[in-house]
Write a structure and sequence with these properties.
It is built from three helices and twelve strands.
Length: 212
């Protein structure tokens, strides 16, 4: 990316990968998995649910479990830090509990980041299932608004078991992604390109043959 004296930003997609503690079936859990809530839900009701649940939860603030990265670049310098802190019990959540709605992470941002709906200060990340579809919801305290993304599916990791909640900020091409653990599955906050998931393969690039 070329740099200049003008402000430059990375177009970003917010992604939280969640490893969900129990190994659950096929590699992908589509819209039909887990409990389904079909009731119409207003934005104010959803915000109230997020706030109430967030007050009862504990979040891991220590880097290693949590993560922080800059969102912007200017004059070859990165700035505008964002930090994701996983809810300490999220790695134990099963699909039925997640379908009913759960705050999975607290996100603190130095700056407003419109592409993701991030406001300065505290933001909350919530996932649920409505009308048979998984949703990712980002709530900004500063704007008192939510941004909802309907997900294609949840990604399963049946051969992995995480023993704590972990969150990461991932940069992939033009995407800034957030990743966290929730019991053998990944829950993206936005739908990612297939190329991203190829990085989960063991040694995705093989060594070339040595010169003869």
């Amino acid at each position: 990316m070329r740099t200049s004296n003008r402000l430059q930003t990375y177009p970003a997609a917010l992604v939280f990968g969640l490893s969900i503690v129990a190994a659950m079936g096929a590699p992908w859990l589509g819209a039909g998995g887990g409990a389904v809530a079909t009731a119409v839900q207003s934005e104010s009701t959803l915000i109230s649910m997020i706030r109430a649940q967030a007050r009862r939860l504990v979040f891991d603030t220590v880097l290693g479990a949590a993560d922080a990265q800059p969102l912007f670049m200017r004059d070859r310098r990165r700035y505008g830090l964002v930090k994701i802190e996983p809810e300490t019990g999220s790695y134990r959540i099963d699909s039925a509990t997640l379908a009913g709605g759960r705050v999975l992470a607290r996100i603190s941002s130095q700056v407003t980041y419109t592409p993701l709906g991030l406001g300065p200060g505290i933001n909350w990340w919530w996932v649920d299932q409505r009308g048979g579809r998984w949703r990712s919801v980002l709530y900004s305290e500063a704007s008192d608004k939510v941004r909802v993304t309907v997900l294609d599916s949840l990604r399963s990791h049946p051969h992995h078991e995480w023993r704590q909640s972990i969150a990461r900020v991932v940069e992939f091409d033009t995407i800034v992604a957030f990743w966290s653990t929730v019991h053998g599955r990944c829950v993206p906050a936005l739908n990612l390109p297939a190329e991203y998931w190829q990085l989960e393969r063991a040694s995705p690039w093989i060594s070339p043959a040595p010169p003869k």
